[in-house]
Amino acid sequence: MTEQESRDRIAAQQMRLAHECLGDAEAAVGRDSARLAWNRAYYACFHAATAVFVARDRRFRKHRGIIKAVHEELVPEGVLAPEQAVAFDGLYAQRLDADYGDFLDIPREQVLNTLETARRFVAAMQHALDATGRK
What we know:
This protein has five helices and no strands. It is mostly helical. α1 packs antiparallel against α2 (about 35-55), α2 crosses α3 and α2 packs parallel to α5.
């Protein structure tokens, strides 16, 4: 297997994980589990962005690294709208709140908005990956 084939395979796996996490977030909303929905929505976006960067032969050791790269590379290239990159920041903050926050009361409407934000982000990353001829 060539290096490119290996990257393509990993990118495809990351995108599968993104869609799996998105499904998990949707299921969590159905069970009124807001914290889990926030967590899974963020990870859907994280895996989708990871897929795009792996296809570009880029890897990151920390979440903040990939978030920074989204702003510095994908937005200027037009792959992602600036507001989607800002929304990714927000999803990261929500995930931290969901995982570590005490006494968190998340209105259902906010959870649904988060889920829609994640869907749009994952779709944009899927489009970017498809545009490179990789799935």
